[in-house]
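Title: Prediction job returns without error message
Component: structure pipeline
Severity: low
Priority: P3
Assignee: unassigned

Description:
Job completed but the reporter wants confirmation the result is attached to the right record. Sequence as submitted:
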Amino acid sequence: MTHAVTAARTVLILGQDADPGAIGFVERAARLEGEVVLLSLGYPISEPQQALVATALALVAETHSGLDVVLVPDAADLPRYLVPEDRVAVFASGMERRTIERVVRAGVGRASAESDVAGR
């Protein structure tokens, strides 16, 4: 997938056990100029992921901001949806989080996970 990026995008990667606190990131991102992208990782989508996506959709309807939601079945597919200019936040824990961070770093060519990949 090729993206034409005109403004920085905020990309939230939601692991299967995504923390509901991720909605605060969506709220802040919706108030910034640029696109908000939720990448929901894994199939089937978990209850925490469903709740976050539903809340995000309601929020962007209120703020009239842009939101893309993509179901990404496997972490190895994440680089297809990212570009180096993206601001990325990862909401996952344990091994899933480490896998996501490794794939994002390797797939998008990020030199430092600390400055580019944030999360809870």
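Comment from assignee: result matches the submitted record. The first strand starts at residue 10 and ends at 14.
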